[in-house]
User: Fold this.
Amino acid sequence: MVWALLPHDTPVGDLVGRSVVARGTVEGSSEMVLAARVTRLGDDVAVRWSTLSARTDPLLAAAQRALGQEPAHDPAKEAEVHRLPAGATIGAALLAATDVHVERVAVC
Assistant:
């Protein structure tokens, strides 16, 4: 399996069928690692992301509640799906979905 670093402005439509790992920070918090899978959803794409953090992240849970979603009890198994236009960038998509300011993105 080969991983390649991506620019933050890569359109999510270019990542359909690929796995993405992003590392970044939440304002006022420590580093967070996210895993995402991008699939086609009509003219849009679906980005299913989950946190790889083994600790409870209160900011992530608050963001999920703000989106009307109840946070999962096991943070390592949290997964959410977000529908996005194919032209949305991966950095902006993950920031909007998770409040994570992406520093590095890799794709497999």
